[in-house]
Amino acid sequence: MGVCVRSFFMTLQCVPEPVIEFRNVSYRLQDGGSRAKNLLENLNLAISRGETVVLLGRSGAGKTTALKLINRLVEPSGGEVLVEGKSTLDWDPIALRRRIGYVIQETGLFPHYTVAENVALVPRLERWSPERVERRVGELLTMVGLAPGDFRQRLPHELSGGQRQRVGLARALAADPAILLMDEPFGALDPLTRAEIRGEFQGLKKRLGKTIVIVTHDIHEAASLGTRIALMDAGRLTGVFSPREFLDSGQPVAAAFASQLRDLENLRGSGRLGNNGEE
Amino acid sequence: MSLVDFFLRHRVEILQSTGEHVWLVGVTMLFSIGIGVPLGVLVTRRPWLTKPILGGANIAETIPSLALFGFLLPIPWLGDRAGRLAVVALTLYALLPIIRNTSAGISSVDPAVREAARGMGMTDAQVLWKVELPLSLSTMIAGIRVATVLTIGIATIAAAVGAGGLGEFIFRGLAMVDNNLILAGAIPAALLALFADFLLGALERRLRPGSARAH
């Protein structure tokens, strides 16, 4: 897999074949009449196996639309999206989605299903044997830090926001998909829980070795989770950076995001936080 | 003669008429659920059908019931048997609350839940059967409850075309200016309505998402 070429110095350089690739993708929303709104324009982005790409941008930048193009919850108006080398339009959408884990901000847990049933959703759709499903649910709950004995039989409304998000993650990972899509996965949590779960997820991510695409408008999340940050603005990709490059970038939107981090540092420096000030 | 004496003396006839009434309402509900629920689902799938379907059911609802029975009487197959005619007319009345509540129940399912279901790779049929219908069940039952109570009341008018039921007593009592006779139809009908309302209300509460299955 992948394409290998001899470089100038005759060392073998392998460019891994992208797992997800956007080629000149645009998406227009037809609002009834002839007026069409461009939500995405000429998006080109290749994501390799094992990478974590963060789509960062303000609300309405087209991040979520880009994410939904990957599992074909929306279909491109122009260009094509390739998943494992095949256009999403050539995939059977059901088969495609079952190979891709999907986590959303509101979790979308089924309120009439127990935690165990929620997590078992995709394995059951894929007709795993009951014993295998049972075992997998136990594994996953443990992995996301929920004691299976305590949580299996609970209903979503009996969980805290952080616990719900953990179940949502376990559900997305259930059938061991190679790709994980996350739309503001920690967005609905309070800052402390959010930092805690983000930290755990960082560890989990390393062990899992999955290709992950995360949508967020939180620079902390982007900088700490992404191997690359794709910055989006008004339906366009304005640049792809490593976290380090991103913070030093002169690109105006990137700089605006990066300044949020610096603001916090400045507050600390000025003595308003930490040092002597107990707020 | 006191009312109690009257009821005791005519208990067999009253029970028989109540039986007829329950049969009439039961068959009507079977038909109206069988037609109304699929139509309610259809409305959520093809929004442009909302106006014609709900509009049609709305119009049926506004026709005075006595007139509706009269309108249907000359129709060949329908007019042949009073029971048939009554069930068709009553079904037309019962449809509106059932269609409306089915579509309202499905539309009120949390969009995030629906999106997650689709994103997990559920087919449209799986989303409907495993997610949308279970989650809108209590709203649907609420519609069926309204329709049932409504039907029990209107079914008394079916006696005007000879379909039997508790309306027989009421019409006879009106003609003979006999209050006991009227009450012999009205009281069982009212009790029937209260009973159905209570039963379906309990079912509705039990099926409300998140309330029943707590462990």
List keywords for this structure.
heterodimer, A: 279 residues, alpha/beta, 6-stranded mixed sheet, 4-stranded antiparallel sheet, 12 strands, 37% helix, globular, disordered C terminus, B: 215 residues, mainly alpha, 10 helices
Structural write-up:
The complex is a heterodimer of chains A (279) and B (215). Chain A is of the alpha/beta class and 279 residues long. Chain A is built from 11 helices and 12 strands. Chain A has a 6-stranded mixed sheet with strand order 8-9-10-5-11-12, sandwiched between helices. Chain A has a 4-stranded antiparallel sheet with strand order 4-3-6-7. In chain A, helix 5 (130-143) packs across helix 7 (161-173). Residues 275-279 of chain A have low confidence and may be disordered. Helices cover 80% and strands 0% of the residues of chain B. Chain B has 10 helices and no strands. Chain B has helices at 3-9, 11-45, 50-62, 65-72, 76-80, 82-107, 111-119, 124-154, 167-176, 179-207. The interface between A and B is medium-sized, with 30 and 22 residues.
Radius of gyration of chain B: 20 Å
**Poorly predicted parts of chain A:** 275-279
Could you state the order of secondary-structure elements of chain A as H and E?
Answer: EEEEEHEEHEHHHHHEHEHEEHH
Q: Identify the overall geometry of chain A.
A: globular
Oligomer: heterodimer
**Tell me about the biggest sheet of chain B?**
none
Q: Would you count the extended β strands of chain B for me?
A: 0
The mean pLDDT of chain B is 91
